[in-house]
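forwarding from the other thread:

> can someone predict this with adenosine-5'-diphosphate?

sure thing
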Amino acid sequence: MKIAIYPGSFDPITMGHLDILRNASEIFDKVIIAVAHNASKKGFLTTEQRVELIKKSVQDLSNVEVDSFSGLTIEYAKKHNAQILIRGLRAVSDFEYEMQLSQANSALCSDIKTVFLTTKPEYNFISSSTIKEIWSNGGDVSKFVPSAVNEYLLQKRD
Ligand code: ADP
């Protein structure tokens, strides 16, 4: 059974993340989307809120589980018997950082491989920070985030 972990901040989850996740769920037997909890970094949403919004957004994906973790991704992957880490690539600018991350993880545990996926072109430019920027300036983000996230953001503005 091929188990993949899709780790990230997901602050909040976007249509870009969801597209990567959907593609991964078609390739692997089970995908765990895991919110990385970073105690020293204050995010926009809490880890619990991010997990909650992801759960609402992935209900149609039967082989996807939602979780959070702290510490090394590779340790989390081992604990869940995962052999694959999923990461998304948007632009060449993502490449250097993602390459280093995958090589560091591979140096820590060569049994776990990183697989890079891309999104549909219309989701390619979307990032959580772009969403927060548009939202904080009163813009409409409904096309770029799952409906649960859009509803949450509209409420948060009121
Ligand atoms: P991190 O803080 O770990 O980079 P993010 O939540 O920003 O977490 O992203 C998680 C992963 O999803 C990263 O590999 C990132 O490159 C990828 N990703 C995010 N948005 C997109 C997108 N629009 N298209 C492709 N990959 C994406």
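The chain has a mean pLDDT of 96. thats all i got for now
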